[in-house]
């Protein structure tokens, strides 16, 4: 691979970490095995609202093929792997005593990673809430912070000897705004929406305290999906809608977590849920800011919807990925600078990637130049931000494997590795070879 095809990484710090990311429900499968409890996504998959009626029952069968998948990571040469633990696999009812068979799966995975010299980055919550807790009100119940703390106590005790990197939540703003589906908004009232935001923030703070108290040398953050919210027209109404969404999408979680205050425009709506001392419970010292970034989002006004917004048309001049997401590396660079200015923490980019529906050609190879171009442009943009003083310390591609893409089922593919869902065979795409070449080239 000629080096001209590689991005500029000259401004990245020594010790910069290259990695890949996945999440439990999207890859594991084995949803009915070894005593795993149901999650809200198992239930949602029965609703008929997932594309092609796909479910997570088999997914990539990572539960049985994790050794092969760690082997793929070794070939890539990544230094780190971000995954999530399925709460209902280790605590089938969300609370109570551990399911040893579930704990033992993560033990084996972590051991395999450590033996391969790959640092495990454990995300505590990537959307698969135990259904038993949903039936007690889920994140709308203020007790959820205590449930989460119990679960995190188990994680710290069982894995804290080998895992030091912990993320409390993946994209709290996304699962709060879209709840389970990522396809439609389900909150029946703005009051419930604000209650959920506050409870998730309380759970975050409680988890940080548990990890600090129980894991020696823990390095902790929360992962935020930050996308600039842009009006889809110059009308005042669209501008106001974009500004309103920006507060919820980009500030409702990191502001209280990292600055100890809610954005001013949210305070009145949070007030009914606030108890004395809550902001101190939420704002615990963090080691880094986890950033997921894909694109800016275009917003228009819609009076009859929660928060008065909807997704608007993207300007015709903006290039799009095959799944219609804007390609805008400048916006990535701006986002990194905005995070640095507002929160001042070291940043790890824990997701960035390109979705398509690419299939093998006649020779069986999966050739994906669009993904390579995308990653190259975004890594260049990150390098640019670093050149302007942004303290960015790592970059993780979403994703190691094609996987269950939530409401889109298996129709959308984000992997560096193609998964044939009939045979479960893995085929590294050309972007896989490219990323491996980049890591080899920049590694001393
Ligand atoms: C992440 O969320 C998730 O953490 C991960 O599980 C998921 O598989 C991955 O992204 C890929 O989807 O339609 O152009 O306005 C991403 C959250 C929110 C990012 C919506 C893209 C819309 C782009 N996404 N956003 S656009």
From TrEMBL:
EC number, as in UniProt: 3.2.1.21
A GO CC term assigned to this protein in UniProt: cytosol
Residues involved in substrate binding: 26, 126, 170, 294, 398, 405-406
PANTHER family from the UniProt entry: GLYCOSYL HYDROLASE (PTHR10353), LP05116P (PTHR10353:SF36)
InterPro entries: GH, GH_1_N_CS, Glyco_hydro_1, Glyco_hydro_1_beta-glucosidase
Superkingdom, taxonomy of origin: Bacteria
Pfam families: Glyco_hydro_1 (PF00232)
Keyword 4Fe-4S: no
Active site per database record: 171, 351
Keyword Hydrolase listed: yes
Top EC class, one word: hydrolase
Provenance organism: Bradyrhizobium diazoefficiens (strain JCM 10833 / BCRC 13528 / IAM 13628 / NBRC 14792 / USDA 110)
UniProtKB keywords: Carbohydrate metabolism, Cellulose degradation, Glycosidase, Hydrolase, Polysaccharide degradation
Family: Belongs to the glycosyl hydrolase 1 family.
Name of the protein in question: Beta-glucosidase
A molecular function (GO) term: beta-glucosidase activity
One biological process term in Gene Ontology: carbohydrate catabolic process
Catalytic activity as recorded in UniProt: Hydrolysis of terminal, non-reducing beta-D-glucosyl residues with release of beta-D-glucose
